[in-house]
Amino acid sequence: MENIKNKVVIITGASSGIGEAAAKLLAKHGAKIVLAARREDRLQTIVNDIKQAGGEAVSVKADVVSAENMKDLAKFALETYGRIDVLVNNAGVMPSSRLNELRVDEWNQMIDVNIKGVLHGIAAVLPVMRKQQSGHIINLSSTSGYQVSATSAVYAATKFAVRAISEGLRLEESPASHIRSTVIAPGLTKTELFDSITSPEVQVLASQISGMGISPYSIARAIAFAINEPDDTLISEIMVRPTAL
């Protein structure tokens, strides 16, 4: 993991789950981590854990729904460390339901966080990476970004969108600016995503399968693998799912 050492890595949604696991794993391998999420107290706890383990990390309270928050996050990372090597667009929500439940506010929340949040992150770091002529943007999609199931129509749509945005980014920036674009697509993972579900039907379904999820560190290892590859090698997509499903 020598190629991870000293890289400046911004991680959104870093207060728990995959974001927290990725922050701790990458810091263990020598990366300089900038954690971002809305829960400031939780971020500080993770920063303290990383420092106690000998790693380097700072945190910023930021909401990916706000383009200004993301610009401020990138500015903070640049002022603190002088460059931005990697952005992990990890923040996401999954209040799944059947379309006929008409949970329009939840549809909009998924669009705002899962699609606009990714775009806001890209917009914040892209000028820096283009100036550097190097960088790596890792976007978290999902197995739902490849296959739609009943109750997941809107969530799946947002994750299909993440794949499209990532591929467009690769086509536009990899040849010209040497900026790598990677999609990580987790299957069922033990995170807080299920906590946002309000549909009684989906809550029952979630309770039946939640125990089958894999560790967030399984996804963190995939993120680390993509980052660690040499600059001339681009990992476009990685799907990680439970063996049992």
Q: Please, could you describe this protein's structure?
A:
The structure is a single chain. The chain is globular, with a radius of gyration of 17 Å. It is about 50% helix and about 15% strand. The two termini are about 30 Å apart. It is of the alpha/beta class. Strands 3-2-1-4-5-6-7 form a 7-stranded parallel beta sheet, with helices on both faces. The longest helix has 29 residues, at about 105-130. It has helices at about 15-30, 40-50, 65-80, 105-130, 155-175, 200-210, 215-230, and strands at about 10, 30-35, 55-60, 85-90, 135-140, 180-185, 235-240. Helix 1 (about 15-30) crosses helix 7 and helix 4 runs parallel beside helix 5. The mean pLDDT is about 95.
Which helices and strands occur, and which strands form pairs?
Elements: E1 8-12, H1 17-28, E2 32-37, H2 40-52, E3 56-61, H3 67-81, E4 86-89, H4 104-132, E5 135-140, H5 153-177, E6 179-186, H6 200-209, H7 216-228, E7 237-240
Task: Give short descriptive properties of this protein.
7-stranded parallel sheet, 245 residues, alpha/beta
Write the H/E string, N to C.
Answer: EHEHEHEHEHEHHE
Please state roughly what percent of the residues sit in beta strands, choosing from under 5%, 5-15%, 15-25%, 25-35%, 35-45% or over 45%.
15-25%
- Number of helical segments with 4 or more residues: 7
Low-confidence stretches: none
Structural class: alpha/beta
Shape: globular
Q: Compute the gyration radius: what is it?
A: 17 Å
Major beta-sheet overview: 7 strands, parallel
Number of strands: 7
Q: Helix amount, in percent?
A: 40-55%
Mean pLDDT: 97
Q: Main sheet: which strands, in order across?
A: 3-2-1-4-5-6-7
Question: What is the end-to-end distance?
Answer: 30 Å
